[in-house]
Structure formats: structure tokens, C-alpha cells
């Protein structure tokens, strides 16, 4: 569904850590004496981010001092005259750069949530500098020589130390540590140019997502629920406009496409949304994408890989582009065949109603809702009164407590936040030990990027000085009129549970070395996707999915309708996602990286038989996952890879007789959720399940029984 964004202060270059070589005098000048961004995080709970003191003007000094201090720390490690050992090299590397890491956490959160022109300017200026700083550590020959010496003698270390050493050594090599001086200089230029391009892509896309379609005649909104119209009214008021404003983000657009009876309005809204970044104007992203894809290909060749995808997938569970494509292409035919069935059903209803039309992409959500009503007597608007945001949040906390023993006590108002609507909980485990804090930032606002994601402001570690977790969830739910209840859709509620699964993963982590905290990209979405299953358990629904007006629990008859419709519209959902994932992988296996993004998208979709009644979930011009960073590039397949494990994992609970089976939950937490990357994730999964994941469980979950049987 949505990406996990990690902002933890981890100093290893496994994630392209940053430092600069240079004058260390700056680092000796009592950093933090006047700049609050450089101060140690103080207060309760092991210290908390000073969100109330963060302003863009403070970052240049914070970047400069933080980078210089980290450079000095790594310089001391590299120049140590003693023979290299794990204790004198790897331990200080794990602790280096913490001040700069905290600064980057603050900056990353602000650019995602408060991305004003001032922050955009900082991003443009500093992204290439930070990329160069990252390369300085990777390219330091003296430091790499120490790492290589310890790697050569790693057999004498304990298993966790061996894994940390091996992963660090491999990462340095993948990032160019073995290149000659000229090659390193060229690679650093590529990385700096990419950093600038990522920043520019994000700026242009955010500009398009900040636009809105104005509606002055309420009749045009016929069929749209009052709660959705209230959000559009609030958006217009915020913009100083009369009437209603449909903001160009998914959370605002999808309800209109689902309920608006006015086909012309649906088409207008759909075209604005699907053409973000693709309008041939100042915010068009196609040239930036072409630059990024070319730079990635050139970088991969320099590092000895055939394509960017081959380079990116070295540290994944899938290992190769071919393995990822094999999984996607196994599911694709079943998904597109289901789309054809769905379109036939929708066309029949359109014909019966006298509408003289052929189902087009802006009709899909509207007519799928008509089919849902007829087939299952299920109206999405009928569900919303049971999904009041505060209640669903409490339901997610209840499930985490019952499954994993986590206890949440709300402390909102006692620690700083960057938005007054944010909420915070203090978290303890079943032994009463402090786990950390959990922050929620749920509402859409101007300057906040679209979608939903999780942050880790501070990651857990046992290595002294030990740290507790500061985790957050970020959504873009539509906030209505002041004092009105916030009713979310079933899909939004599933998103809430999904993102909370990332937070649970962070809160259950129990590792010694921060360098073994992060997991492969195609594992990251696994814990979050598993967590979605508990939303519709009868226990959670009875306690928390209660009608916001009457307080009545959701009737079993309504839940039965939801259960009966679980595989409804899976053709659409699977195909729009898979199309994006397949195009991503094919784009990043173009050997020379020379592409025209629009043409490539069209020809690739035609080649795989993309149904013409829908589009990719993320078209290339707005594919933030791919072009705002390297994060999900050649990696969007990972949601499907993770879902294969997710479906098979929940099947383990079902086989045990209950979604709340304590023994299964304990094994899941102990083997997979708490261990970070201390062991190979495929081996860990086999230890949990006794075998590799069953792809058939995924196909059955999506309702593709025939494909599962093959």
C-alpha cells in the first residue's frame, strides 16, 4: 500500500549514511549551544524531538555542524593506529553521527509534512551536499581497509557480529568502495545529480497535488455523501474560495470517483489526478524522470551491474529481477481476466440504466459501487458510520495489546508536536518496561505529501547507550468541519491498521546493533500487511466499530456482506497495482537507461495487455515511490512479495483456530518482528512457518482460486 519511511539516526552506510571529510574544528565548538536542532533531545522518555523549535532557518548551521562532527568521528575510527577489531571499528561506527542523524530526522519529517517553499529550497541546496558527504565515508580507503580486515577474520566473531560485518562490507562494496579514484569521483557526481533530481521531482509533484478543482454548483456533487462534501467545503474555505474544492490527492479524489453521479465531473477529477506531473508545464516531471533513469543505469554500470534493478536487488529476498517478475507474472493473467469480468458486470448496469457509455477509467469506481450494491446489498456509505477515526485508532491499540502485550497510555499535550492535531501515546510492554512513544499525524494539509507512511524518529537498540523507540504514523484523512466526527472508509481503516503494523514492527524490535535493524525492502511491508487482518475480526468490530450516533455494534449481517465481498473488485485492485510494479521493474532493467517516460509507459502497458478501462495506480509522472528517492525503485513489487508472506502468516493463525492464538502471536513476534535483520529473513520465515511461503495463499486471498490451483 504505502511506503515505510525510516528516519532513524543509523550511522552505517548500509542506508547511504552521511558525513563529510574536512575541518573538524567546527565539531569542537560546543554544537547545540545556540541552535536547538543541534541540542541533544531532552525531556522524558529518553528525550523527544523539539518539534516546537524547528524552523527552516536553523537547518544550514545544523547540517554544517552535524556533518563536520560526524566526519571527525569517522576520521578518528579510520586513523586509529591500533589493529582493526570489531570493538574499535564497528562499535564506534554504530554510534557515529548521532547528532547529524537527529538533524536529518527533523528535516525529513518536515519536508514530508510541512514542505513549504523554504524547506524545498533547503532540500535543493543540501541534498547533493549530503549525497557527497555520504560518498566520503564509503570511499574512505583507510576506513574500508579496517572493515575489510575484520571481514577477512570474521569467523572469530559471534553470529550477530559476523552478520553486521558481512552486511557492512557488502554494502560498502555495492556503494563503490573498491572503485579507483576516478571512478569514485564519477560515482559521487551521479549520486549528487540524483539527489538534486529527486528533490526537483518531489517539488513539482507536490505543486500539482496542491491544486484543486473548484465546484460552485452543488448539483454537480449529486450522489456524493455529505461527509465528503463537508471536506470539499472546508478545502474551499481554506483556499478562500466559494463552493467546494476537490483537492488533487487520492483521499479527496477517490470518494468523488466512487459516488459522483455527474460523469463530466468524474472525468474532470480523474484527468487532473492521473495527469499530475504530465501536463507539459513547469511542473511536468517527464524530463526529470528520464534524467533519473539514465543516471541510475550509468551508476549501475560503473558499479559492475547490468541494470539498476540488478544493483538494487542485491540486498533483497527476491535477489533478482527475474524472481520478482516471475511472481508478478503468475498473478497478472488472473488479475486481468477478473478485470474483464468486472467490466462486463459494470457495463451491464450502465446499459440497463440507459447510460449511453462504454466503461472508461473515470467510470470504474462509480459502477463498481453499483455492482457492489446489487450483488452484496453493500453500500460503502453504509459502512462509514461504523468507522469513526478515534474508535478505529483505539481498536488498533487494543489488537496490539492483545496480540503482543503492548500497552498504550495517551500523553497528548505533554511533549512537543509539529501540528496541533497530533496525538501521542507512551508505550510499555507486558513486563511494564518502557518501549517508547507512538505519534499519530492523521490529517491532510497543504504542504504534506500524499499517501500514508510510517516514520521512526528514533530506533531501538541495546548497544550502550541503549535507546527506546519513537515511532509515528502519518495519514491524509480528510478533516471535516470543526467538532464534527471524522468518518473514514473501510479502505481508510485498513490503511490505518496497515501503517500501525509498521509501528508495531518498530516497537517490538529488540536488537543490539542498529546496523541490524533495517530489513530488506521486500520484507518491510510484510508486518504491516499482516496487521490489516485484525481490523475485521469480530472482537475488534464489537468493541470499536460502533455506530458513531447510536453506539450500536456493526450488525453481523453487515459484516457478512463485507466478508462475502472480500474478493470483490480484486481484478481492479490487483491490476492497477501490478501494472505499476511491472512498469517499475521493466523501466529499471533498460540497459542503457535511455527512456521517454510517457512512451515507455504506453508501450510497456500495451505489451503486457493492460485493460483500457483502468490505469496504473501510480503513473510514472507521479510515481513518488520511484523518483523522490531510490527507496522503492525496482522495488514496488515488494508489496506483492510481502503479501505472499502475509497471507501465509495469517493462515497460520487460522490453522491454530483463532486470530488471537497466543502461541502463534508469540512465535511471530519472537522470530520475525523482534529480530530486525539479525538473521536472513527467508530463513527466519522458514523458522516461523516450517517452510517457504505458499503463493497459493495469496492467490486464494485475492479470490483467484483457479490460479492458486495451478
Report on this structure.
The structure is a single chain. With 710 residues, the protein is an alpha+beta fold. The protein has helices at 59-79, 86-95, 98-113, 117-138, 141-152, 159-174, 181-209, 226-238, 250-259, 263-274, 286-302, 308-312, 321-352, 361-376, 380-383, 389-404, 490-508, 521-531, 538-544, 556-564, 570-587, 597-608, 624-627, 638-656, 662-673, 681-689, 695-701, 705-709; strands spanning 212-215, 244-247, 407-410, 423-428, 434-443, 453-458, 469-477. The strands form two sheets. The protein has a five-stranded mixed β-sheet with strand order 3-4-5-7-6, with helices on both faces. A two-stranded antiparallel sheet has the order 1-2. α1 packs parallel to α4 (117-138), α13 (321-352) packs across α14 and α13 (321-352) runs antiparallel to α21 (570-587). The longest helix is centred in the middle third of the chain and has 32 residues, at 321-352. The protein is globular, with a radius of gyration of 25 Å. Mean pLDDT is 93; it is low at 1-29.
Amino acid at each position: 500500500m504505502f511506503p515505510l519511511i525510516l528516519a532513524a539516526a543509523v550511522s552505517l552506510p548500509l542506508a547511504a549514511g552521511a558525513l563529510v571529510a574536512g575541518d573538524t574544528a567546527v565539531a569542537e565548538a560546543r554544537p547545540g549551544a545556540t541552535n536547538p536542532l543541534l541540542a541533544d533531545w531532552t525531556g522524558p522518555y529518553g528525550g523527544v524531538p523539539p518539534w516546537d523549535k524547528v524552523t527552516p532557518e536553523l537547518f544550514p548551521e545544523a547540517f554544517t555542524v552535524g556533518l563536520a562532527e560526524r566526519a571527525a568521528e569517522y576520521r578518528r575510527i579510520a586513523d586509529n593506529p591500533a589493529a582493526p577489531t570489531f570493538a574499535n571499528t564497528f562499535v564506534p561506527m554504530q554510534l557515529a553521527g548521532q547528532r547529524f542523524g537527529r538533524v536529518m530526522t527533523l528535516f525529513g519529517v518536515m519536508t514530508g509534512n510541512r514542505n513549504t517553499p523554504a524547506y524545498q529550497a533547503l532540500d535543493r541546496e543540501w541534498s547533493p551536499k549530503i549525497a557527497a558527504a555520504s560518498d566520503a565515508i564509503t570511499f574512505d580507503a583507510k576506513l574500508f581497509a579496517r572493515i575489510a580486515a575484520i571481514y577477512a577474520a570474521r569467523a572469530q566473531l559471534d553470529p550477530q557480529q559476523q552478520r553486521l560485518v558481512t552486511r557492512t562490507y557488502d554494502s560498502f562494496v555495492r556503494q563503490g568502495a573498491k572503485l579507483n579514484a576516478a571512478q569514485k569521483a564519477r560515482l559521487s557526481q551521479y549520486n549528487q545529480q540524483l539527489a538534486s533530481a529527486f528533490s526537483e521531482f518531489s517539488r513539482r509533484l507536490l505543486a500539482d497535488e496542491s491544486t484543486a478543482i473548484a465546484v460552485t454548483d452543488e448539483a454537480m456533487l449529486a450522489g456524493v455523501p455529505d461527509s465528503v462534501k463537508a471536506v470539499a467545503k472546508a478545502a474551499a474555505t481554506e483556499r478562500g474560495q466559494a463552493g467546494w474544492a476537490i483537492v488533487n490527492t487520492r483521499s479527496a479524489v477517490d470518494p468523488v470517483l466512487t459516488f459522483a453521479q455527474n460523469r463530466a465531473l468524474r472525468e474532470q477529477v480523474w484527468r487532473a489526478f492521473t495527469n499530475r506531473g504530465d501536463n507539459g508545464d513547469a511542473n511536468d516531471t517527464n524530463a526529470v524522470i528520464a534524467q533519473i533513469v539514465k543516471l541510475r543505469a550509468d551508476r549501475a554500470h560503473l558499479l559492475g551491474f547490468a541494470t539498476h534493478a540488478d544493483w538494487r536487488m542485491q540486498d533483497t529476498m527476491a535477489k533478482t529481477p527475474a524472481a520478482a517478475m516471475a511472481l508478478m507474472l503468475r498473478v497478472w493473467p488472473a488479475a486481468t481476466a477478473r478485470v474483464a469480468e468486472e467490466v462486463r458486470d459494470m457495463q451491464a448496469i450502465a446499459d440497463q440504466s440507459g447510460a449511453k457509455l462504454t466503461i472508461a477509467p473515470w467510470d470504474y469506481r462509480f459502477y463498481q459501487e453499483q455492482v457492489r450494491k446489487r450483488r452484496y446489498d453493500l453500500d460503502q456509505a453504509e459502512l462509514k458510520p461504523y468507522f469513526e477515526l478515534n474508535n478505529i485508532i483505539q481498536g488498533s491499540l487494543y489488537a496490539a495489546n492483545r496480540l503482543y502485550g503492548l500497552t498504550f497510555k495517551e500523553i497528548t499535550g505533554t511533549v512537543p508536536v509539529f501540528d496541533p492535531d497530533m496525538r501521542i501515546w507512551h508505550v510499555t510492554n507486558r513486563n511494564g518496561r518502557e518501549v517508547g512513544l507512538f505519534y499519530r499525524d492523521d490529517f491532510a494539509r497543504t504542504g504534506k505529501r500524499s499517501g500514508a507512511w510510517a516514520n521512526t524518529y528514533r530506533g531501538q537498540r541495546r548497544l550502550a547507550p541503549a535507546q527506546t523507540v519513537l515511532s509515528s504514523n502519518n495519514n491524509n484523512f480528510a478533516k471535516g468541519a470543526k467538532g464534527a466526527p471524522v468518518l473514514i472508509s473501510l479502505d481508510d481503516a485498513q490503511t490505518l491498521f496497515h501503517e500501525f503494523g509498521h509501528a508495531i514492527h518498530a516497537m517490538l524490535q529488540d536488537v543490539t546493533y542498529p546496523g541490524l535493524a533495517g530489513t530488506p525492502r521486500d520484507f518491510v511491508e510484510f508486518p504491516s500487511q499482516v496487521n490489516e487482518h485484525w481490523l475485521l475480526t469480530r472482537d475488534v468490530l464489537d468493541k470499536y466499530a460502533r455506530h458513531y450516533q447510536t453506539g450500536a455494534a456493526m450488525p453481523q449481517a453487515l459484516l457478512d456482506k463485507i466478508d462475502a465481498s472480500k474478493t470483490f473488485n480484486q481484478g481492479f485492485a490487483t491490476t492497477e497495482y501490478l501494472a505499476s510494479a511491472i512498469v517499475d521493474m521493466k523501466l529499471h532493467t533498460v540497459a542503457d537507461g535511455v527512456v521517454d517516460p510517457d512512451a515507455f509507459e504506453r508501450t510497456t502497458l500495451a505489451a503486457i495487455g493492460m485493460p483500457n478501462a483502468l490505469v496504473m495506480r501510480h503513473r510514472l509522472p507521479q510515481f513518488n515511490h520511484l523518483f523522490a528517492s531510490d527507496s522503492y525503485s525496482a522495488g514496488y513489487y515488494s508489496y506483492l512479495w510481502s503479501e505472499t508472506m502475509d497471507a501465509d502468516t495469517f493462515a497460520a493463525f487460522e490453522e491454530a483456530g483463532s486470530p488471537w492464538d497466543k502461541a502463534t502471536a508469540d512465535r511471530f513476534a519472537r522470530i520475525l518482528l523482534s529480530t530486525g535483520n539479525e538473521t536472513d529473513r527467508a530463513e527466519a520465515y522458514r523458522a516461523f512457518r516450517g517452510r517457504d511461503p505458499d503463493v497459493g495463499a495469496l492467490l486464494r486471498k485475492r479470490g483467484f482460486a483457479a490460479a492458486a490451483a495451478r
